[in-house]
Design goal:
The chain has 170 residues and is α/β, with parallel strands linked by helices. The chain has one domain (2-161): NAD(P)-binding Rossmann-like Domain (Rossmann fold, 3-Layer(aba) Sandwich). The chain is 44% helix and 12% strand. The chain contains 6 helices and 4 strands. Strands 1-2-3-4 form a 4-stranded mixed beta sheet, sandwiched between helices. Helix 2 links the parallel strand 1 and strand 2.
Protein backbone atom coordinates (compact mmCIF):
# COMPACT_ATOMS: atom_id res chain seq x y z
CA UNK A 1 0.00 0.00 0.00
CA UNK A 2 2.80 2.41 0.93
CA UNK A 3 4.70 1.97 -2.34
CA UNK A 4 1.53 1.95 -4.47
CA UNK A 5 0.27 5.19 -2.91
CA UNK A 6 3.63 6.91 -3.40
CA UNK A 7 3.65 5.75 -7.03
CA UNK A 8 0.11 6.99 -7.68
CA UNK A 9 0.51 10.38 -5.98
CA UNK A 10 1.86 12.27 -9.02
CA UNK A 11 -1.22 11.31 -11.03
CA UNK A 12 -3.55 11.97 -8.13
CA UNK A 13 -2.05 15.42 -7.60
CA UNK A 14 -2.63 16.20 -11.27
CA UNK A 15 -6.31 15.40 -10.86
CA UNK A 16 -8.69 18.26 -10.00
CA UNK A 17 -9.91 16.31 -6.95
CA UNK A 18 -8.64 12.93 -5.79
CA UNK A 19 -9.22 10.83 -2.73
CA UNK A 20 -7.25 8.08 -1.10
CA UNK A 21 -9.24 5.81 1.22
CA UNK A 22 -7.29 3.29 3.28
CA UNK A 23 -8.97 0.38 5.04
CA UNK A 24 -8.10 0.04 8.70
CA UNK A 25 -9.82 -1.51 11.70
CA UNK A 26 -10.39 -0.73 15.33
CA UNK A 27 -8.17 -3.74 15.95
CA UNK A 28 -5.35 -1.17 15.89
CA UNK A 29 -6.32 -0.50 19.53
CA UNK A 30 -4.71 -3.75 20.69
CA UNK A 31 -1.49 -3.08 18.78
CA UNK A 32 1.84 -1.42 19.22
CA UNK A 33 4.39 -0.89 16.49
CA UNK A 34 7.27 -3.25 17.17
CA UNK A 35 10.05 -1.60 15.20
CA UNK A 36 12.40 -4.46 16.05
CA UNK A 37 10.13 -6.92 14.19
CA UNK A 38 7.67 -4.96 12.05
CA UNK A 39 7.21 -7.84 9.65
CA UNK A 40 6.83 -10.51 12.34
CA UNK A 41 9.79 -12.50 11.13
CA UNK A 42 10.30 -13.71 14.69
CA UNK A 43 7.33 -15.02 16.63
CA UNK A 44 4.35 -14.68 14.26
CA UNK A 45 0.94 -14.06 15.76
CA UNK A 46 -1.94 -13.45 13.34
CA UNK A 47 -3.97 -11.20 15.67
CA UNK A 48 -0.95 -9.09 16.64
CA UNK A 49 0.20 -8.82 13.03
CA UNK A 50 -3.26 -7.77 11.88
CA UNK A 51 -3.59 -5.16 14.62
CA UNK A 52 -0.11 -3.81 13.96
CA UNK A 53 -0.84 -3.55 10.23
CA UNK A 54 -4.03 -1.58 10.94
CA UNK A 55 -2.16 0.75 13.30
CA UNK A 56 0.53 1.27 10.66
CA UNK A 57 -2.19 2.08 8.10
CA UNK A 58 -3.54 4.80 10.39
CA UNK A 59 -0.10 6.32 10.89
CA UNK A 60 0.52 6.14 7.15
CA UNK A 61 -2.85 7.78 6.40
CA UNK A 62 -2.25 10.66 8.80
CA UNK A 63 1.35 11.14 7.65
CA UNK A 64 0.45 11.26 3.96
CA UNK A 65 -2.42 13.65 4.70
CA UNK A 66 0.00 15.90 6.60
CA UNK A 67 2.68 15.76 3.89
CA UNK A 68 0.35 16.56 0.97
CA UNK A 69 -1.99 18.98 2.71
CA UNK A 70 -3.27 21.62 0.31
CA UNK A 71 -2.55 19.51 -2.78
CA UNK A 72 -6.22 18.80 -3.50
CA UNK A 73 -5.76 15.12 -2.63
CA UNK A 74 -7.54 13.91 0.49
CA UNK A 75 -6.38 10.92 2.51
CA UNK A 76 -8.64 9.16 4.99
CA UNK A 77 -8.97 5.77 6.67
CA UNK A 78 -12.11 3.79 7.30
CA UNK A 79 -13.05 0.86 9.50
CA UNK A 80 -15.67 -1.20 7.66
CA UNK A 81 -16.48 -3.13 10.81
CA UNK A 82 -16.62 -6.90 10.92
CA UNK A 83 -16.76 -8.54 7.52
CA UNK A 84 -17.72 -12.02 6.41
CA UNK A 85 -14.42 -12.90 4.79
CA UNK A 86 -11.97 -15.75 4.61
CA UNK A 87 -9.27 -13.95 6.57
CA UNK A 88 -7.37 -16.57 8.47
CA UNK A 89 -8.43 -19.39 6.16
CA UNK A 90 -4.81 -20.19 5.29
CA UNK A 91 -3.72 -20.39 8.92
CA UNK A 92 -3.59 -23.92 10.19
CA UNK A 93 -5.52 -24.94 13.21
CA UNK A 94 -8.88 -25.88 14.49
CA UNK A 95 -9.83 -22.36 15.59
CA UNK A 96 -10.53 -21.04 12.10
CA UNK A 97 -12.28 -24.24 11.08
CA UNK A 98 -14.71 -23.67 13.95
CA UNK A 99 -14.95 -19.87 13.85
CA UNK A 100 -14.83 -19.30 10.08
CA UNK A 101 -18.37 -20.53 9.32
CA UNK A 102 -19.75 -18.49 12.22
CA UNK A 103 -18.00 -15.34 10.95
CA UNK A 104 -19.34 -15.85 7.44
CA UNK A 105 -22.86 -16.36 8.76
CA UNK A 106 -23.07 -13.54 11.34
CA UNK A 107 -20.99 -10.74 9.85
CA UNK A 108 -22.06 -8.46 6.99
CA UNK A 109 -21.03 -9.20 3.43
CA UNK A 110 -18.05 -7.44 1.89
CA UNK A 111 -20.47 -5.43 -0.25
CA UNK A 112 -22.29 -4.12 2.80
CA UNK A 113 -19.07 -3.51 4.74
CA UNK A 114 -17.73 -1.43 1.84
CA UNK A 115 -20.42 1.23 2.28
CA UNK A 116 -18.38 3.45 4.60
CA UNK A 117 -15.38 3.39 2.27
CA UNK A 118 -17.58 4.23 -0.72
CA UNK A 119 -19.20 7.07 1.21
CA UNK A 120 -15.83 8.58 2.15
CA UNK A 121 -14.62 8.17 -1.43
CA UNK A 122 -17.65 9.75 -3.13
CA UNK A 123 -19.69 12.02 -0.85
CA UNK A 124 -19.34 15.63 -2.08
CA UNK A 125 -19.61 16.88 1.52
CA UNK A 126 -16.33 15.11 2.31
CA UNK A 127 -14.45 16.48 -0.69
CA UNK A 128 -12.06 18.53 1.45
CA UNK A 129 -11.94 16.30 4.54
CA UNK A 130 -8.50 14.77 5.03
CA UNK A 131 -6.62 12.99 7.76
CA UNK A 132 -9.76 11.39 9.13
CA UNK A 133 -10.81 8.01 10.45
CA UNK A 134 -14.39 6.92 9.84
CA UNK A 135 -16.18 4.01 11.48
CA UNK A 136 -19.66 4.63 10.16
CA UNK A 137 -21.27 6.66 7.43
CA UNK A 138 -21.99 9.55 9.74
CA UNK A 139 -19.11 9.73 12.14
CA UNK A 140 -15.50 10.88 12.02
CA UNK A 141 -13.38 9.70 14.92
CA UNK A 142 -10.01 10.57 16.35
CA UNK A 143 -8.61 7.08 16.82
CA UNK A 144 -5.27 7.72 18.46
CA UNK A 145 -3.00 10.39 19.78
CA UNK A 146 -0.91 10.97 16.70
CA UNK A 147 2.76 10.77 17.67
CA UNK A 148 4.87 12.56 15.05
CA UNK A 149 8.02 10.74 16.21
CA UNK A 150 6.45 7.31 15.72
CA UNK A 151 5.05 8.46 12.40
CA UNK A 152 8.43 9.74 11.17
CA UNK A 153 10.16 6.54 12.29
CA UNK A 154 7.57 4.34 10.55
CA UNK A 155 7.90 6.45 7.39
CA UNK A 156 11.71 6.12 7.36
CA UNK A 157 11.51 2.40 8.13
CA UNK A 158 9.03 1.88 5.28
CA UNK A 159 11.31 3.71 2.86
CA UNK A 160 14.23 1.55 4.02
CA UNK A 161 12.24 -1.69 3.65
CA UNK A 162 11.38 -0.69 0.09
CA UNK A 163 14.98 0.34 -0.53
CA UNK A 164 13.94 3.84 -1.56
CA UNK A 165 16.95 6.08 -1.07
CA UNK A 166 14.98 9.26 -1.79
CA UNK A 167 11.74 10.17 -0.03
CA UNK A 168 9.29 11.02 -2.84
CA UNK A 169 7.41 13.38 -0.53
CA UNK A 170 10.50 15.06 0.86
Amino acid sequence: MFRMTLGLLPGLRASPAARIVNISSDTYRIATLDFEDLQFEGDYNMVKAYGQSKLAILYFTFEVARRIEGSGVTVNAVDPGPVASNIGANNPGLAYQLIGPVIRRLFPSAERAARTALWVATDPALGRETGGYYRSRSRREKPLEFDPQISARLWRTSLDLLQLAVDPLG
